[in-house]
Design brief:
With about 775 residues, the chain is mainly alpha-helical. The protein is built from 16 helices and twelve strands. It is found in: Membrane.
Length: about 775
């Protein structure tokens, strides 16, 4: 039926067979603006009311808080799961798939990583910051799953926004019978839905959580960020419990309200195409809940009322009128004056800059004219102090490669140092050019010319060293790749000494640094956020550099890049190389006593003849590394991956290999007395002629291991032929208990007898075997 009277709501309820009770018109300044009715007892009774009291209750018009909250939680859960599910599966494949071909990371994913890393303060996806190609290789399935982790939440979110805007319901809201309407009673529309979700809920809620996390000292703890975001979203929704209209904050921002879908259709359907008694269109209604009892019935409560839009107060009608001529003229004159003054200031500023540049050019030309033999040194020193020094620095660097006078070389060097770090790129070019000249004269008979070129090279080296020392800590990403800062092959005396210097972030790829001293220096530091482990960490890159005989004692090289680096005979004692990248590095004969290599990557690295006493390799990756003749007494290899490594003739006395993966390792003739292999993977390991006296093998996997000629106990000096004569009756007790030797190769009878006596497991052990 069509309702066109103020009492239409009462008639609509009557048509449905309901007792409508008493109706009352609502007036505002003597004008009828709507109707309210008093619900009689029994109309939609409250289930929680006392059955003994016949008391009317309110008709609930908005969706209950718990159903609205459950729908919101389910929406957020679906959105987050659509991203984290594929990402987690792809990450698992990336970290656990050992074999199979790997492909470059998809360019879209690489760009996404670069964009997300600064926002969430994550470590850089790629450590190469010099512009060289650096592409992570992942399994093909990881590419597919990670792409789904981007597409799925975007698609799901767009679909939810579209459904919310067009129908007022997403799928979770439909399940929980909750509908979102604009305050006009219509569906929200796409724009209002975007404002409600992206601005009101995610923008304000998650944005507040992110600001607290970012600037509250919680970076880079992502778990805390998630907790803050969840708490912020929960507070946004809980606001409905205290709001008089039961509206959450995001509903207030977007001008929407969430209601019970069934009740909304019951109360709004009779109002379609209805007009009031004054003939005004009643096209916007607000479903509200009364909070006070009326004088007509003190025990009855007011039901939802249908109220048209409030009229604009007469006191602000002037805001709708056009601006006056006087105000418009004032604004125009003010704009003209501001524009004119700004133009004059700009013109005068440009003229001042031109005059200053002209004076500097005149000064520069005057200095160039003074390059007579008697005034050249003074002019050289002045060049390094110009206010616009680029041209002067370039000229000084060129002179450094041409000058033959020793005193003037010193003057040029000092002028370049006075120019500051901006001189380093020019010094790098000069260093490389002079180095090329020196290589060309390697077999020349002109000794004087060769010595002069060596002096020029030393001048560039000293200038670079001074700048690195003076500006320690302020040289992030300074490019000194392929520079020669090491010792010369002749008697020319130069040694790079940068002890206790902050070199974090420096780029020294392919540089010559042999004989340099970096004792106590820093090669890794926090970025601008002053936090380690985030996207802007400053990591030194020494890939393929030469550091032979270098002094790196107590240096902080954590996470530094040293792949393919030559570290022969270097001193790394007490240095920190945790999580450093040393793949294919040459560490032959290095001294690394008490050095920290935790979680470092050392695949195919060479440690031949290295001294590694008390070094910590816990969690390190050393697949295919060569450690022959290594001295590593008391070293720690817990949970390290050392598959296919070569330890021939190494001294690993009391070394700790607990839970290490040693598949196919070669320990032939190695000293392993007192070593701990508890829970280690020793499949296919070669122990031929190794000394395993007092070694702990409990829980180790020995399938396919070769024990030919293995010593289990210390032999007596007077009876060297005795293979397994124990030094005491208690020696070896419990060291082999429960260890299965059935799959071990090349065990002889006496070894089996000893294994059985010490509690080992073998098919040839007799039930009554006793300890010796």
């Amino acid at each position: 039926m069509r309702i066109c009277t103020e009492l239409g709501i009462v008639e609509a309820l009557s048509d449905r067979g309901l007792d409508t009770g008493k109706a009352q018109r609502l007036y505002y300044h003597g004008r009828s603006i709507g109707v309210k009715f008093i619900r009689p007892p029994g109309l939609f009774p409250d289930k929680k009311a006392n059955p003994e009291r016949s008391q009317p209750t309110e008709i609930e018009t908005k969706g209950s808080i718990w159903r609205r909250g459950a729908a919101s939680v389910l929406e957020i859960t679906l959105l987050v799961a659509s991203a984290l599910g594929p990402w987690g599966a792809g990450e698992y494949l990336r970290t656990h798939e050992a074999g199979g071909d790997r492909v470059p990371l998809h360019p879209v994913l690489a760009r996404a990583q670069d964009a997300i890393a600064p926002i969430l303060a994550l470590p850089r996806p790629c450590d190469d910051r010099t512009g060289r190609s650096c592409v992570e290789r992942v399994p093909p399935a990881t590419n597919l799953l990670w792409m789904a982790a981007i597409v799925a939440p975007v698609t799901l979110g767009a679909w939810q926004l579209y459904a919310l805007g067009k129908t007022g319901q997403t799928l979770p809201k439909r399940w929980f019978r909750v509908e979102v309407l604009a305050v006009s009673g219509r569906t929200p529309g796409l724009l209002r839905a975007v404002v409600r979700e992206l601005v009101g809920r995610w923008g304000m809620g998650v944005g507040l959580a992110y600001c607290l996390w970012r600037y509250g000292g919680a970076v880079p703890d992502l778990t805390l960020l998630g907790a803050l975001a969840a708490g912020s979203l929960a507070l946004d929704s809980l606001n409905a419990c205290f709001d008089r209209d039961r509206r959450a904050l995001h509903d207030r921002v977007a001008g929407t309200l969430a209601i019970d879908a069934a009740l909304e259709s019951f109360y709004t359907s009779p109002l379609q195409n209805c007009t009031g008694t004054q003939g005004d269109p009643l096209d916007r209604v607000k479903i509200s809940q009364a909070h006070r009892s009326t004088s007509m019935d003190s025990k009855a409560k007011i039901s939802p009322a249908l109220v048209p839009l409030e009229q604009v107060p007469a006191g602000i009608h002037w805001m709708r009128r056009p601006l006056g001529w006087g105000l418009a003229l004032g604004i125009g004159l003010s704009t003209f004056l501001v524009t004119w003054m700004g133009t004059q200031i700009y013109v005068e500023g440009q003229q001042t800059l031109r005059d200053r540049a002209e004076r500097e050019r005149e000064t520069f030309l005057a200095l160039v004219e003074k390059f007579a033999p008697d005034e050249r040194q003074g002019a050289i020193l002045a060049l390094g102090n110009l206010d616009a020094p680029d041209a002067g620095i370039q000229l000084l660097a060129d002179l450094l490669g041409l000058e033959n006078d020793g005193d003037r070389l010193e003057a040029i060097q000092q002028a370049l140092v006075s120019s500051g770090p901006r001189a380093l790129p020019y010094l790098k070019t000069a260093n490389q050019a002079v180095r090329a000249d020196l290589d060309a004269l390697r077999y020349s008979a002109d000794t004087a010319q060769r010595q002069m070129v060596e002096r020029r090279l030393q001048a560039t080296q000293r200038a670079i060293a001074k700048l690195l020392k003076i500006h320690s800590g302020d040289l992030d990403e300074i490019d000194l790749n392929r520079t020669h800062l090491g010792r010369l092959d002749t008697d020319a005396a130069f040694a790079l000494v940068l002890e206790k210097t902050d070199l974090s972030g420096i780029q020294l790829r392919g540089a010559r640094l042999d004989g340099a001293s970096f004792r106590g220096s820093l090669f890794y530091g926090a970025g601008s956020d002053r936090r380690f482990g985030t996207f802007d960490d400053r990591k030194a890159d020494l890939t393929a550099s030469t550091l032979t005989d270098a002094d790196l004692r107590a240096a902080f090289l954590s996470q530094a890049i040293l792949e393919n680096t030559d570290l022969q005979r270097a001193n790394l004692s007490s240095a920190n190389l945790s999580q450093a990248k040393l793949n294919r590095a040459n560490l032959s004969s290095v001294r690394a006593i008490d050095t920290d290599f935790q979680q470092a990557t050392l695949a195919e690295a060479t440690f031949t003849g290295a001294h590694l006493g008390e070094a910590n390799f816990a969690g390190a990756q050393l697949e295919g590394a060569r450690l022959t003749r290594t001295e590593a007494v008391g070293s720690n290899w817990r949970a390290a991956s050392v598959m296919r490594t070569n330890w021939q003739d190494a001294d690993l006395t009391t070394a700790d290999f607990t839970q290490a993966n040693l598949q196919q390792a070669n320990f032939s003739s190695a000293q392993l007395n007192g070593a701990d292999f508890t829970g280690a993977n020793l499949q296919q390991v070669n122990f031929q002629r190794a000394d395993l006296s007092a070694a702990v093998l409990r829980g180790a996997t020995l399938d396919g291991a070769d024990f030919q000629g293995v010593n289990f106990t210390v032999s007596s000096s007077s009876e060297e032929v005795d293979f397994i004569k124990p030094s005491s009756e208690s020696e070896g007790v419990d060291l082999l208990t429960g260890v299965n030797f059935n799959s071990v190769r090349n065990l002889d009878d006496r070894q089996i007898e000893y294994i059985c006596a010490r509690g080992g497991i073998h098919d040839l052990c007799s039930p009554g075997a006793e300890s010796w």
